[in-house]
Write a structure and sequence with these properties.
- Belongs to the NAD(P)-dependent epimerase/dehydratase family. dTDP-glucose dehydratase subfamily.
- InterPro entries: dTDP_Gluc_deHydtase, NAD(P)-bd_dom, NAD(P)-bd_dom_sf.
- One of its GO terms (biological process) is nucleotide-sugar metabolic process.
- With 340 residues, this protein is of the alpha/beta class.
- It has a single domain, classed as Rossmann fold.
- 45% of the residues lie in helices and 17% in strands.
- The protein has a seven-stranded parallel β-sheet, with helices on both faces. A three-stranded mixed β-sheet has the order 7-9-11. It has a two-stranded parallel ribbon with strand order 8-12.
- Helix 6 links the parallel strand 5 and strand 6.
- It is globular, with a radius of gyration of 19 Å.
Amino acid sequence: MNILVTGGCGFIGSNFIHYLFDTRDDVLVVNVDKLTYAGNLQNLASIEKKHGGSRYVFVHGDINDASLIMKTMRAHQIDAVVNFAAESHVDRSINDPSPFVTTNINGTQTLLEAARQLDIPRFVQISTDEVYGSLGPEGLFSETTPLAPNSPYSASKASADLLARAYHKTYGMPVVITRCSNNYGPYQFPEKLIPLVFTRAMQDESIPVYGDGLNVRDWIYVRDHCKGVAMALEKGQPGQVYNFGGHAEMANINIIKIILRELGKSESLITFVKDRPGHDRRYAMDFSLATRELGWTPDHDFASGIRETIAWYTSNMKWLRDVQSGEYRTFMNEWYSERK
């Protein structure tokens, strides 16, 4: 299978590419990434070294570039598209929603249209539980839960999902949509909660907590999510939505305390700050459909997943320092220079 992965240098996309090469020996992966601040070529340096030019191809580009997307799909005889490319940070979407509309909505439509014109046999749209809005103290999001996004980010992802659904209903495109709960694991950009807490705790800096810290999320280890996406790619029913979750509901404040305890740091580092606008109170996923139809269940509970995550960051402090300092951009420039 020749797979076009968009946003493959980001957190989840790079983990997905690693998962593919760890579990399959019959794929060609073409990675199209714009390399915004969250895209990091270092995430895939080992893949490039081992498989570059044979089973792995990197294309620096924007998913809104219709000509580039068509050219790339044709050149590599793409069989499937997996769209991870997205602006994904809620706080950034509150400050400026426009890039989220451009990438998450317009970019998805560009990919869908190219795939439709070339009759690509499979299109997987990667989405998020945030499109469902906020839950009360009880209940779970299912695939039939009405969409009720509460931030510009989640609204843009919901819009992309509806476009994907429309391409299936209108044109008969074999589109599958996946929605996951909060991911954590290796290569996550340190603006996100878990790597942010790790980084600030290691430096004995204050850790900001929105509101009362009791906002609840269901956490999924990123490799479990990648396994689910691979199953949806291979076995998902066209037009279907599949939820993936970690069966690990945790309040943000408890996540922070667990990390501090694992690192031997004091809870006095915790600082409560003003809550952000439209902050959803609780997410939790019913992933029973994915279990029934795909045979998917998560392999990690939160205790094992967070230990693996902390161990990875502890062993990869240079990666973290390079991201914090911006040095990873230098790596990208050197990478390009070597190929001129």
